[in-house]
């Protein structure tokens, strides 16, 4: 069954969804995006995703194609028209179509595209087993806090991980873990959560922020600080967070087994807390 895709104000079958070859998202990766998870047909933590979208647009001096409230109305309509119960809603804004020139175009209209992806998020079998990750040099640009569609470096890292028989890669800069290819990285040592502080070096994850709050409410301690791959390999537990993986255990880093090689107790507790909250408080 063909999906209904949103393109610049229209809801069209995916085969008919078209963007210009002059679109700056295509020519310059001059675009930003958000991925919001959908559970029970409802958007999870979408207000926070739209706030981050606004921040990404501001940082790139890009106009919003619509007021945020209208973007949200369109998001809900895409979910509804596709009868999406569980999965993800992808949204992308680019600076629009204009003849190729490095300078910003004067009168281009930003483009807005949205589509759904059905996925099994709550009963994801990968969460029972946990992920293996490899470590790889972080070759991305220096503004990773902006959620741009410039995703070639993480795509290369993800493919290297799959080629090595792993599930994902943790990116290393100056000896420290920055984040996963499309998720934030965490370790647990002595019952304490450790994750890198936010800066321009990582994406300020919406799931990361929710998990921090849930941990605090549950009395789980947190240290926001840098950690190395070596420290991670000696941790009791490891996991990643993102809108599509929620809290995903990591049970192997390169050749090192983490803990007893099974998803850790603190990790699974946080995963459970995340679902409890997502089921009760959506939108
Ligand atoms: N990725 N770090 C990076 C580099 C990411 O691309 C993502 C999200 C995250 C987690 O952010 P959040 O919790 O807000 O999803 C961290 C999305 C899911 C993606 O590209 O598909």
The structure class reads alpha+beta
Uncertain segments? none
* Sheet having the most strands: 9 strands, mixed
Any ligands, ions or cofactors bound here, and which? N-(5'-phosphopyridoxyl)-D-alanine
Give the mean pLDDT: 97
Net shape: globular
The CATH architecture of the largest domain:
Alpha-Beta Barrel
Question: How many angstroms does the end-to-end distance come to?
Answer: 27 Å
How are the elements arranged and paired?
Blueprint: E1 4-7, E2 10-13, H1 24-28, E3 31-39, E4 42-43, H2 46-59, H3 68-81, E5 87-94, E6 111-118, H4 126-129, E7 131-137, H5 152-163, E8 168-173, E9 176-180, E10 184-189, E11 192-195, H6 206-217, E12 222-224, H7 229-233, E13 237-242, E14 246-253, E15 256-257, H8 265-280
Parallel strand pairs: 7-8, 7-14, 11-12
Antiparallel strand pairs: 1-2, 1-6, 3-4, 3-5, 5-6, 8-9, 10-11, 10-13, 13-14, 14-15
Descriptive notes:
This protein has about 280 residues and is α+β, with helices and mostly antiparallel strands. The chain has two domains: about 5-120, D-amino Acid Aminotransferase, Chain A, domain 1; about 125-280, D-amino Acid Aminotransferase, subunit A, domain 2 (D-amino Acid Aminotransferase, Chain A, domain 2). It is about 30% helix and about 30% strand. The chain is built from eight helices and 15 strands. It has helices at about 25-30, 45-60, 70-80, 125-130, 150-165, 205-215, 230-235, 265-280, and strands at about 5, 10-15, 30-40, 40-45, 85-95, 110-120, 130-135, 170-175, 175-180, 185-190, 190-195, 220-225, 235-240, 245-255, 255. Strands 7, 8, 9, 10, 11, 12, 13, 14 and 15 form a nine-stranded mixed sheet that branches. A six-stranded antiparallel sheet has the order 2-1-6-5-3-4. A hairpin with a 3-residue loop joins strand 13 and strand 14 (about 245-255). The two termini are about 25 Å apart. The mean pLDDT is about 95. It binds N-(5'-phosphopyridoxyl)-D-alanine. N-(5'-phosphopyridoxyl)-D-alanine (PDD) binds near residues 182, 183, 241 and 244.
